[in-house]
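4.2 Preliminary Data

To establish feasibility before requesting continued support, the project team ran the inverse folding procedure on a target of 271 residues. The structure was first converted into the token representation described in Section 3, and no sequence information of any kind was made available to the design step. The complete token record follows.
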């Protein structure tokens, strides 16, 4: 009788636990359902885009970059623009590719060890990464909207390697406010923390401690800060590639093609 009562009492708690553990799978089903609809909506936009510009938009969106705009060219986002950027991020195919790549690394490292190898284990790892990404983006979007923080990366516009490097590294923890000033980004750090620690609720015992959450938080923050270097110097690479592909003019009416990244990002909507 006591065993039966204990089982009945633990029933609701067990059901809640199962729902939490299955959250990443529910999220995948939701995104799989709404992605085609939102993608179709984007295709109905009245402004036609040049070939390849959609990929550039997706690339800038997944990197959270404001195109080729410099920090001095900053313009505050309106709430509809924030909403549009958030939903584009949630259904960006490159975001799924990024999650798949991270899941592949965890699969190779057999992390967490409780999840088997093969398709089943990879699916769990992919759902876990996607769940963490989605929580991070959602919390960052919500806090950023409330606090008027813009976490997009704007090129520094500075000269010299070290000044640009200092700007890039600080951008990992700073955000632009509506007045153009840069302050500590509560939304960015809060989003990373939410994704890292809430994931402990569905991860297996070997990855469920607060210490594991702290390690995940620190790793993600360090990755974001380091990758800001790529964002700062990526337009330079685009200009180099543009010069290599630039054709010499053969007549007064001929014009040389613009650079792939530099020109496309100027007309692309910032993520």
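Position-by-position output of the design step:
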């Amino acid at each position: 009788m006591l065993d039966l009562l204990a089982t009945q009492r633990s029933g609701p708690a067990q059901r809640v636990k199962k729902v939490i553990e299955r959250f990443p799978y529910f999220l995948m089903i939701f995104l799989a359902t709404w992605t085609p609809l939102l993608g179709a909506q984007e295709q109905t936009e009245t402004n036609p885009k040049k070939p390849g510009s959609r990929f550039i938009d997706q690339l800038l969106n997944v990197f959270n970059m404001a195109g080729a705009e410099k920090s001095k060219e900053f313009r505050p986002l309106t709430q509809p623009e924030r909403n549009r950027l958030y939903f584009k991020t949630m259904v960006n195919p490159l975001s799924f590719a990024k999650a798949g790549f991270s899941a592949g690394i965890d699969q190779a490292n057999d992390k967490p060890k409780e999840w088997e190898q093969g398709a089943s284990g990879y699916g769990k790892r992919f759902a876990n990464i996607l769940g963490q990404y989605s929580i991070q983006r959602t919390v960052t979007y919500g806090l950023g909207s409330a606090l008027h923080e813009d976490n997009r990366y704007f090129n520094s516009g500075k000269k010299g390697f070290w000044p640009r490097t200092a700007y890039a590294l600080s951008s990992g923890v700073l955000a632009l406010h509506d007045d153009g000033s840069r302050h500590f980004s509560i939304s960015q750090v809060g989003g990373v923390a939410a994704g890292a620690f809430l994931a402990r609720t569905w991860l297996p015992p070997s990855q469920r401690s607060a210490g594991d959450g702290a390690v995940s938080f620190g790793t993600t923050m360090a990755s974001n800060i380091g990758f800001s270097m790529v964002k700062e110097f990526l337009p330079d690479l685009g200009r180099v590639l543009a010069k290599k592909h630039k054709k010499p003019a053969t007549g007064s009416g001929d014009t040389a093609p613009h650079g792939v990244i530099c020109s496309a990002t100027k007309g692309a909507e910032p993520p």
